[in-house]
Design goal:
This protein is 39% helix and 21% strand. By secondary structure, the chain is of the alpha+beta class. The chain has a 4-stranded mixed sheet, sandwiched between helices. Helix 2 packs across helix 3. The longest helix is centred in the C-terminal third of the chain and has 19 residues.
Length: 119
């Protein structure tokens, strides 16, 4: 498998998995994204996206989800591994891919440090 490929094993699915990440309570808001984190004990990270109809019509929601998955795919090499990430999307106009990358790189290492007990 190509190291930058985003296959199904890197996607977080299921109500129970999302609930476990929410219950961990490690979260931070960055732009229109609220990112939750939990250690998963795997060698790779998984991404879950929660986006409600309040964000907009289906085309807008799908565009945002595609951009978030692409930002996660491109960031796999530099972001901490072994975590489940749930991104809750609040209403906004779809941003450019660079913005989503910036938000991920500003938030995910910080949350991983919080899980490991670092300030």
């Amino acid at each position: 498998m190509h190291p930058l490929r985003l296959d199904r094993s890197r996607r977080l699915g299921g109500r129970a998995n999302f609930a476990a990440v929410y219950q961990a309570g490690i979260k931070q808001m960055r732009g229109p994204l609220r990112i939750f984190a939990r250690s998963n004990g795997l060698t790779h990270s998984r991404l879950g996206i929660s986006i409600s109809r309040r964000v907009g019509i289906a085309a807008r929601r799908n565009r945002i989800k595609r951009l978030l998955r692409e930002a996660f795919r491109l960031s796999q090499e530099t972001l901490p591994a072994g975590y489940d990430w749930v991104v809750v999307v609040h209403p906004h106009e779809p941003a450019k891919l660079d913005e989503y990358l910036k938000w991920f790189h500003a938030t995910m290492p910080y949350l991983a440090g919080k899980i490991q007990g670092k300030p």
